[in-house]
Amino acid sequence: MTQEFEFDVVVVGSGAAGMTAALTAAYRGLSVTLIEKSRTFGGSTARSGGGIWIPNNPVLQAAGVPDSPELARTYLKAVVGDRVPEAKQRAFLERGPEMMRWIGARSRYWDFVYDRGYSDYHPEFPGGLAQGRSIEPAPIDGRLLGGDLHKINQPTMSGPKGIAFTVSDFHDLNMIARTWAGKRTAMKVGAQAVANRLRGRLPLSLGKALAARLWLSLRDAGVPVWLNTPLIEVVTEAGAVVGVRAEHQGAPVLIKARRGVVLAAGGFEHNLDMRRQYLSGPQSTDWTVGATENVGEGIVAGQKAGGAVDLMDDAWWGPSVRNPDGPPFFCLAERAQPGGIMVNHAGQRFVNESAPYVNVVHTMYEQHSAGVDHIPAYFIMDQTFRDRYLFLGNFPKRPIPQKYLDAGIITQADTLEQLADKIGVPAATLSATVARFNGFAKAGRDEDFGRGDSAYDRYYGDPTVQPNPCLAPLDNGPYYAVEMVPGDLGTKGGLSTDEFARVLDDGDRPIAGLYAAGNNSASVMGNDYAGAGATIGPAMVFGFIAANHLADADSFETAASKRTARGRETSSAGKE
User: Fold this and answer.
1) Mind listing the pLDDT tens digit for each residue in 505-547?
2) CA angle 365, 369, 372 (to 5 degrees)
3) CA separation for the pair 517, 538 (Å, rounded)
4) pTM
């Protein structure tokens, strides 16, 4: 027997998009419930770095960032082009600061800090900012969650108990063996960890801090959240969405939605069939760090309700290293640090290694399809690199973990020629590639790919290496070759939506009562990436937009009213 419930709004998914939508709906006075298929909350948000990219938001304004609406419009247009309708770009930019202010005035857990210096990903574009527009949640004590602490989705990597660091801390920690800032940050993080353990604090940072802050806000607002409740289908009547069917704790339920449904259940990164259907080139569900529950059922449910899809051939890509024991390692800093290069199976460089991660993987796929294998690519480094920098979470000078060597993910050799033979690339070509790169490093200018020219490149570079912090020669054996695969943070495509987050059909007409946000919807970023947090920022903004549109009954025909009107039309037609 199916049990029935009824609310004004039903939200599907407990990542940043879903929790923001549910919180906004509750603050607007609507009855709302949020359902989540997993036994944990937070989705990919909790597993992420927690960055948020929203231009002109109050945190940036308080920090004195020289941003403006015109600069932001110019920059986003330069990044996205015509791939995303201008109205949707404008909605994101205009409503984003409002979302931050409006929820901040109502939630006692709304606390964020500016990641000063974390450059926009294309600062050289018109309107780009070298000092960046990214913010992140301030760390929070997990004890506030009480019995809900164990319900938060776990990150792909975790440190010792009591350890918590910010994005800025991570930046400095990468230079622990090179700069005083790195050493001071390590001491600060270590001292905080000791204090946390002594005082019983359970600090949460990055994506877990964001998920926790949203969850606590929902709890304060009295929003019921049903975990372990997978979506079965979206329910429609007379062309309008009126609720969802789900399975709650093993039993079927029908949850009616008087105003509408917001789909925010993530992408399809862990669905191999959908990856092969929509994404080109070699694919694997072992290469993604997205939440394991993300298999695309929200997208499919929206399609069955009449929704069109867009951007399904793209993802939030990033070069990654397979991990024999679990999720892959998503490489952020490693590619920018001097003394390492990426080569294809011909032993040649093919990209600016320090470029934004989405762009690097786009190049991997594009050139792989041209005939020379680029998947996996090889990250080549020497012992000097290994002695100077963190790599795969391991401190400088520490030996490469044996598990990577045993699995053939990392190969070691005394000379470049021996390394080339072991990984099957032409030895002469690899040697020539390294020699050419070494010449660029000594001169301080990468004449082939411009590595280090952008402020984004230099953010993770080594400031002690001059004149180019991203360039240093590889000339000190032994040498290492690390397989790099096209990993991702999640898929980028999903249901087509308009500037109100309404799901559109194939004719660009909104489907009454159906909304989507986050990776359930096609990204406002199109095929590129504006800056750190350009996944989560828009997810939250369009969750906010969806809930407000549902609450503003005068601005649209509700699913219920449209259903009633269509029923009357049908009845009248029958009488005639």
Assistant:
1) 999 999 999 999 999 999 999 999 999 999 999 999 999 999 9
2) 100
3) 8
4) 0.94
